[in-house]
Amino acid sequence: MSISQVWLNLPVKDIKRSKQFFDQIGFKSNPRHEADEHLASYLIGESNFVVMLFPDSTFKGFVQSEIADTSKGAEVLINLDAQSKEEVDEMAEKVRMAGGKIYAEPSESEGWMYAFGFEDPDGHRWSMLHMDMSKFPKQ
Amino acid sequence: MKAKSIYINLPVKDLTRTRVFWTKLGFLFNEQFSDDKALCLVLNEGSMYSMLITHEFFKTFTDRPIANGTTQVLIAVEVESRDKVDEITRLALENGGTRYKEAADHGWMYYDSFADPDGHQWEILFTDESLLPKP
């Protein structure tokens, strides 16, 4: 099997609000969908992983299921891998400036990971993690 | 943002069941990042992974309970042919996945879907941009 692309689809309540937030924190808008008002699309990282944001009603049609209330439960946590500690700090600052909620301040764990976590306007939780593989515990 | 990889973290009940399911569908795991608490499913080597994490371990990452019976995310995976879409979906349904929707054919895009044994929803799709309607 050869996988050429992966899309992460998330439900949002207000496309405009989401666009504003993700633009502000520096996500790269997908040129193909830039003009769309009924969805938002971002390309993430060097491999152009696609994140698609759809209004709740559209998303519901896709999944034929009720949408999770993110304040009550979590099905997914999304993690982005950062190339440096500085990148983690920079993103945390952007999220702060954009009014995003930081649920875990940047901090080091187990001596080789440095991460922070934030919530987007719909309560989806993202984290950004830098792994220093030179300090990864040897088996 | 220079991020090289993205990890989609999903809670699963039984790692053995999860490993068998995805292996039967033809997917691989990154063993360096897999252990008795999580499996690292390779979606695209070097850039996209799904971490399938035991409920117990998942709970250490969030103070929210694990959602049950609702959907927060839909992961769509593009493969190389229509046949591959059908094959993966068939294998999923034969090995503990469930169908919640019929396959859809939009000419330039063909996809089918299934829920994995933990209820996480996946779409497998094939696109042929040469068939995309011209504006």
Describe the model.
- The complex is a heterodimer of chains A (139) and B (135).
- Chain A has helices at 15-24, 56-63, 85-97; strands at 5-12, 28-29, 40-44, 49-55, 77-82, 101-109, 113-119, 125-131.
- A 4-stranded mixed sheet of chain A has the order 1-4-3-2.
- The model of chain A has no long low-confidence stretch (mean pLDDT 92).
- In chain A, a hairpin with a 4-residue loop joins strand 3 and strand 4.
- Chain A has 139 residues and is an alpha/beta fold.
- Helix content of chain A is 22%, strand content 37%.
- With 135 residues, chain B is of the alpha/beta class.
- Helix content of chain B is 20%, strand content 31%.
- Chain B has 3 helices and 7 strands.
- Chain B has helices at 15-24, 55-58, 82-94; strands at residues 6-12, 38-44, 48-54, 74-78, 104-105, 109-115, 121-127.
- Chain B is globular and about 50 Å long.
- The interface between A and B is large, with 47 and 46 residues.
Indicate the mean pLDDT of chain B.
93
Q: Name the average pLDDT of chain A.
A: 92
Q: Indicate the proportion of strand residues of chain A.
A: 35-45%
Total beta strand runs of chain A: 8
Derived structural class of chain B: alpha/beta
Q: Give the number of helices of chain A.
A: 3
The neighbouring-strand order within the major sheet of chain A is 1-4-3-2
Question: Which bin fits the share of residues in helices of chain A?
Answer: 10-25%
Unreliable sequence segments of chain B: none
Give the number of DSSP strands of chain B.
7
- Report the sheet with the most strands of chain A, covering strand number, pairing sense and barrel closure: 4 strands, mixed
- Sheet with the most strands, sense and barrel status of chain B: 4 strands, mixed
Radius of gyration of chain B: 16 Å
Radius of gyration of chain A, taken over Cα atoms and rounded to an integer in Å: 16 Å
